[in-house]
Specification:
Elements (H helix, E strand, L loop, with lengths): L1 H22 L1 H58 L4 H18 L7 E2 L5 E3 L1 E7 L21 H4 L15 E10 L13 E10 L4
Antiparallel strand pairs: 1-2, 3-4, 4-5
């Protein structure tokens, strides 16, 4: 008799335990979701950062190339009109390249403009290379304000021709952009990624 009552009590306890689990099935799922959520957020933000840095890298590649091309075409027009470039013409070439590069950089999320509408981020510098060396005093002059992280900017500047450009004049544009990721909140420049590109475009006909 005693043995039968123990069995019944044991069965009742098992039934109550099973019923308790069935009455609150979401509790365990909620705890599991709370544990997994931070990992999911980090994963999603990481994927987002990869997409943003890829897009920024493409824009950083295109901006100096298009700027150098625009200034090289301007060089050709000025040289054909006047037979030679004046000091003010070289400054116009700088302004043209800076304008195009800054406009191309408008797709970059951290682009910064000054009161005149010129880019202060990214950092852009220009040099015109030709035999006249008319750009000697202004070659790369925009690089003086670039931070030390812009190592491309700190490299030596010279208006003399060099490299495989077929002996023709060419325009060089250097570009340095600070990309701030979402997943790592930067403090100052810590955690930032510096995208640096340099491109040269030869004058088509000289």
């Amino acid at each position: 008799m005693l043995h039968g009552s123990c069995d019944r009590r044991g069965e009742a306890m098992i039934v109550r335990a099973a019923r308790g689990k069935s009455e609150h099935p979401g509790g365990q799922s909620l705890v599991e979701f709370a544990l997994v959520l931070p990992l999911l957020l980090v994963l999603l933000l990481g994927i987002s950062d990869l997409g943003r840095v890829f897009t920024s890298a493409i824009a950083s590649e295109a901006a100096p190339r298009n700027a150098a091309e625009a200034a090289a075409q301007e060089y050709l027009q000025l040289s054909q009109q006047t037979g030679g470039l004046s000091p003010s013409d070289y400054q116009d070439l700088h302004d043209r390249a800076l304008e195009v590069a800054c406009r191309e950089a408008e797709r970059l999320p951290s682009r910064v403009l000054d009161l005149q509408g010129d880019c202060t981020m990214p950092h852009i510098a220009v040099c015109v290379h030709d035999d006249a060396e008319g750009d000697a005093n202004s070659c790369g002059q925009e690089s003086t304000g670039a931070p030390i992280e812009c190592t491309e900017m700190s490299a030596a500047w010279s208006p003399a021709r060099s490299g495989p450009v077929g002996g023709r004049p060419y325009v060089e544009v250097r570009f340095c952009y600070r990309f701030d990721p979402i997943i790592i909140v930067p403090f100052g420049d810590w955690g930032s990624i510096w995208l640096q590109k340099s491109n040269a475009f030869a004058v088509a006909n000289y």
